[in-house]
Amino acid sequence: SLERCNDSYLARPDADLPVCFQQTVLVWVPLGFFWILAPWQLLPMCKSKAKKSSLTILYIIKQVLTALLVLAAVAELALTSVDDAEQGGVPAVLYTNPSLYIATWMMVLLIHEARRFCLPRDSGVLFCFLTLSLLCGILPFQSLVRKALQEPISDLPRFILFFISYGLQLLLFLRHHIGCNLCSLSLGPGWVGRLICSKESPTNYHGMSLSHRMVYKGYRKPLEIEDVWELKDKDKTKALYTAFEKNMKTEMKKARTKLEKRERKRRRREGDPDHVNGMSKAQSQDILVQEGLRPSQGYPRGWLLNTLAKTFKQNLLLAVAFKVVHDALVFVSPSLLIAFVSDEDSFAWQGYLYAILLFLTALVQSICLQQHFSLCFQLGINVRASLIAAIYKKSLTMSGATRKESTVGETGESHVSWMPRELGPSVLAGIKNMKNKDERMKIMTEILNGIKILKLFAWEPSFEKRVTDIRARELKNLVNFGYLQSVSVFVFTCAPSLVSLASFGVYVLVDENNILDAQKAFTAISLFNVLRFPLAMLPMVISSMVQTNVSTVRLERYLSGGDLDTSAIHQNHIAGSFSEATFAWEQDGNAAIREAITSHSGSLAYVPQQAWIQNQVIKACALLPDLKLLPAGDQTEIGEKGINLSGGQKQRVSLARAVYSDADIYILDDPLSAVDAHVAKYLFEQVLGPKGLLQKKTRILVTHSISFLPEVDNIVVLAGGAVSEHGSYNTLLANKGAFSQFLNLYGNQEEDVSEEKTSPKKLKGQKLIEKETVETGRVKFSMYVRYLRAVGWCLSFWIVMGYVGQNVAYVGSNLWLSDWTDDSVRYLNQTYPTHLRDLRIGVYGALGVAQAVFLLFATMLSVWGSMQASRIMHQQLLSNILRVPMSFFDTTPIGRIVNRFAKDIFTVDETIPMSFRSWLSCFMGIISTLVVICLATPFFAIVIVPLGIFYYFVLRFYISTSRQLRRLDSVTRSPIYSHFGETVSGLSVIRAYGHQERFLKHNEIIMDINQKSVYSWIISNRWLAIRLEFVGSLVVFFSALLAVIAKSTLEGGIVGLSVSSALNVTQTLNWLVRTSSELETNIVAVERVHEYMKVKNEAPWVTKNRPPRGWPSRGEIQFIDYKVRYRPELDLVLQGITCNIGSTEKIGVVGRTGAGKSSLTNCLFRVLEAAGGKIIIDDVDIATIGLHDLRNNLTIIPQDPVLFTGTLRMNLDPFDQYSDEEVWKALELAHLKTYVQGLPEGLLHLVSEGGENLSVGQRQLVCLARALLRKAKILILDEATAAVDLETDNLIQTTIRSEFADCTVLTIAHRLHTIMDSNRVMVLHAGQIVEFDSPEELLKKQGVFSGMAKDAGITSAESTAL
What's the pTM? Predict the structure, then answer.
């Protein structure tokens, strides 16, 4: 029988494979696979230095089973030799197979031993070999069983041995599968990461079983970041960036060379190469360098995509390969089955074989597709990591010119612009919108940074309007873009229907003998369905490419911008010298020189004037009294921008940091300005002076105070940006130059500094910034409801109806088609009636068009609805954030709020509408497909139930994990923004100390934490997809199987319809879950936005109870037993103050740190609400009126001069309440008129972010102009002159004395001389008034005030007269 290997075996109803085929091919294929790969599995044994793992029960079971298999093979060999002896001449194959098996199982024993040297214990090769062996064994298995049922068994011993050996293999296979799961159970999360990524396992089956562990864990409890796998070293930011940087440098160099060639050609074309526009070559080079950053001019282009392709090419090629295999198999499926259904004479077994083949094809397809997706997503996050690292590193090294071009907001934006990439092709709305979004984010960042000023001046409505206007433009573009998209979706939906209509129509019309039959129609339909998906994605892909292009251009410009030029610095024995150096900076001279030195860090320390405090726990010294005040001493957490330290404390921390750095050169930018006299004196003696800690170092001190000048070695006097004279103190006095005149003018006002700003937050605890909350568990259903309510219930209903209509038309057109194909049987050998043919084509076409029309209707409505929702939600969020009390901003990092306005609003705008639409169409699609299959084969309804249950559980299991991982992604992304923002704002300090490395490292760490959560999310997605596609494959299998069983009763048309629908369902099922989880993931944005919508507001801006017109007319202030605390859980900062301040009185407020001076101003403006008592201004209790009524009628010149991006005029008068004449008048009084007239744009001069293009003094004068313009009856000066040189200080003081003579003025004093001419001085101590009288009286009293005056060198009130 072995020789009869021919076709006769298959051409009969009970077909079987020839025995010779079973005993050769089916045995040798798995063995061949095994022996090709097995030897490599022994390597760990030879080279491993690791010690062997201990024996486990699982290991012993494994070895026992393998030993039994060896024995079975030996027994079979013995049997053969006995047979040979008895009968003589047995087929050779009976000797070779057992011998091969003996060798194979011995090898398996060795491999098991070798695996004890590595993790994981189980070998992927063995797993594949056993799978293959069992699959090939199924055929002989069924052959033997069928034979045994038909006739007595001829060769009983071999029959028994086959089943024993098959059973043992099955047990070994199961042991491998379970072992893999158990090994991951016994290890911690750190191991799991290494396992899933283990290089030893060629398949992904370990990965899958381990992601199973994680999904299971995520189902039982909300995942924490600690549960997430660690990344492999090669996936960490550092490794990715190293490779990226190497390629970036070479590619950028090539691009630069090309650019230079182009520039040279351009110049040659334009004329004489050496003198462009009458400039020398060198000058034109400079200009080129400056202009080189403008988009119109050249910057190297096209290098970024090349760099990325080079860095990640392996990943890309693999992904493409998997996709090609998947797409090739797509064409195999449908043609198999319909061939069987339409062939009347085919045997039943062929049908079953086709059904099984369909199932296997579907499985292989889904594995390839998932590998492809996995690789693509990994590529996405790796690209993102490399780019963010590159942007971050660039921000640390870029030159001033480049930095000027990109504000914090924009840099943050380029930092963000690659963020949404990992969501795959999410549709982003056009380039115009990017500009609007940038602008909106820029203003939002500024609003949040300057929120205190907005509150004090009651300017929130003006800025709210600015943001709302930009938002309106943004939404208008979004809607137009959405409509455009709806039309493209309409076109692409029409396409498959029209294509099928055209094909069938042409086929039928060309020749009247052509009758459409099931095989042709449904093979075609299946192929058109294959087209449906790519066509639907095409518009998204195009818009994503446009978007990527925009981002690429921005990134290329940013990353190829100029770096700091360190070549201009020479290190030699002179501490520091300038030779013919010119620095351009839009600021005053000292600031420019200081910037120039610190940009090029040697070993130098730098104390900036506006102390930059990084959000780390400070371990500072020279701050002992302050550390006693702080709740947790030197472990107290410092808020963003040092929000919980007073000005003086920040300055001292900054100084301490410099002293620690032990540098050779110290650059001190007026560090004594923010501290009071005795502290300044102390710091000078202890740290800066000739006997201080830094006596052996070179110190360059920029100062506005005169009292320390006699003790310095050399004085450089700057005037108008140039050195006017330099020499020692005595030399300059003797010279009788500008310096000695200056001294004569101001010398008698010796730095009579009083006390610094109070430390507002004496916190109970050490934590200031709460950890960002991560919502856990299912997204509340109310979030969906809230979103739909924002869309509008009526609209929502009609949108759903549109989708229902589309699917009814879809099912209708398919049923019509199946009926049409049955005509081929009805009119067999007859003429097909023309009218019927036309009717068939007409109705089919109409139904196709109806689908598209319904869809167009639904998408148009949903665009409109989602725009409504976006507008409402952003409006509510914005208006709420502007109405929350100040304490919220003290404890919430700005990055966190910005994240709501950037990422979450983006999601609400663009991602959620997409997710909702996809979800609806997937859901309806699946329902319509199941309806069609049930119509064809009603039995299928029975199969739906178990499949549905399995599907539901997989879904519930997975969604909880996925959702939590997305939330972790959101939360771990905030620190990346925050750290980035802090870095950019504290750049000069980081550079001056040379700490770039530390910050880069920190950035890598927080990036990796974020990568980790995204990576796990991707793996869990694949876990899900494999299982879901398995459900899909089962649907295909059962619909095919039922079609085969019911073959005799079914028309070809309906079978074709049923199977082609089933083939379609696999992907749709997968998409339904993807879209469900994506929707749930994205609806988290609504949850996060809502979280900030419900933050408690401060008191209303305007109440029914309005103050009388012209209030306050007298400016009398009464404090009646007034108490206040910062937050409910904290102690009182003002302990019951009672005092009366008369009309037009000038009051000075003094007191040491923490006395409550600033709290006093906060109370007048109701930034803090009373904990008891009240404040009455002109007979009105301020607690009874609206905040804006109060704040509009008081004026403050705050300590930090905050300016906003926009024109100078906008900074003075955001509501356009005053005429130009009034504005110029105010500028004149503030001594800024000449400066502003000198600017080309005058009042429309653009102020850059944070007022960076004005010096600190000029900013302070702008604040003075604001006060002059408003001219309220009550003026509060909050240490307004702390950071200003004596001349500016003098200007401000004189102006205030003359212009505010008829106002009540409260001055929170900083230098005692500013308040010596007050009517009365209020001395605060620990929140109580200890002295309150005229300066003369207080000096006589020998109390707290006279002690302070003595420190400041003031003896009598007269000595300070100007």
Answer: 0.65
